[in-house]
Amino acid sequence: MTQLRHFLQLIARDFPNTTSLNYASPWAGAHYRPVPGSTPQALREEAQAKQTYSYLKQLAKSDPSSGVAIIEGIEHLENPPSEYLDERSIKECYGHLDGFRILGKDECPEGVKWGARYETAVINSPVQTVTRQNSDGSWSFCIPRPLSGGTIIGGTKQPRDYDPNPSVETREKLLANAAKWFPFAPGSEGKFDVIRDIVGRRPAREGGMRIEAEKVGEGRFVVHAYGAGGRGFELSYGVAGDVVKLMVGNKLVGERASL
């Protein structure tokens, strides 16, 4: 067994107890959803996500009080990118998920060309997550929040938009897209009762996360690990593992074996 002995100082603008426009994690969907791809960034994130999924499964089983749970995840895509039609790509990206299966045409809603079900890991344990890709390429999702009430309706990505105020246009688009497939309760008349608008930023980097060691003085280094965008929870444990490997590889921390 390998153990590391080291002294670290964590530097961040926001921490888990923070609620801020620039820190969206407290309101994040936080459900594990694979993203197939063949670029170096996509393959790196795929490996990080798989490590995180394995850890979250173990955490959900060993410590229910953590708020992590394993539930059913559903995906419906109306205009699937080519990666979703590549059997090998899907097997590599989704094959590690318990219960994964591609849905037959008779199991998919009208207009859906690719669908899947699997067991996903989530934070704050909703009952079921649904992710829908619309025909124009935009995305919708609904994530019930039983611990705090209500359901998060999301699916917007607006690079370099720094307006801190809720957009009526964006809200109407999100609700209209979700209303096409949301399982409304009887008596709701197919309409949402909006409780709150939340604006949150998900810091991302073109080309993917920055994970590297930067020397800032004699014997002093900063190990960067930021830019996960909307995949912070999904990549978290895998990124932490890469940071440890980077630190050991650059001899920033010692490594010793113990029995």
TrEMBL record:
Keyword field: FAD, Flavoprotein, Oxidoreductase
GO molecular function: D-amino-acid oxidase activity; FAD binding
Domain of life where this protein originates: Eukaryota
Pfam annotation, one family: DAO
Gene Ontology cellular component terms for the protein in this record: cytoplasm
Organism the protein comes from: Aspergillus oryzae (Yellow koji mold)
Protein name: Unnamed protein product
Lipid biosynthesis listed as a keyword: no
